[in-house]
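Give me structure tokens for this 193-residue protein.
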Amino acid sequence: MVPCLISFYAKLRTFKPRKIHEPRRKSISRKFVTFDYTTLQFLKAASININKNIRKIYFNDILPLFIASGDDGNYAQTAANDLTVLQAISKRIHYGKFVAETKFRKSPRDYKPLIRVKDREALMKLLVDKRVEKMVLKRVEKKAMVFGQEVSLDPNVKGKYKVDPSIVYSLYKKWIIPMTKDVEVEYLLRRLD
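Here you go.
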């Protein structure tokens, strides 16, 4: 994946490859915990991919919230940034597979009967924790406020943001969280295959 991105950015002339130094084996700490992605052994379930839907929503609904009308002529950088944002959104949404697997392993007796009868609504009710959703939405809005501030040394300038935190909040509420829940349900429906 990384070599493809490097190649893509190089073609757009937005990236100049540097000499990449591999870390020495001795310097790698054995204390790092890594996630074994092979634990998603359920190939049908793990193969869920809603990137076409994500792409459609990104270009038709999300992008218009952030862009100004006009043409700045900066096509290469715009394409590279769109790719980066799309990858981040896709990664965030597809983490739903891991969330669903964790919830399934926590209480398989609750999930198995619903999966067998393919009851989407009941699975959604079982998966959803409104309290956690509210916490995630508050955290996302707070992060947008903190990290999206225009920094100024002028004490009179307050509350100016690069992106309105309420837009980030609604982005998660309207698209990111619902699509993540859809991925979770789709994963569970195929979990026993």
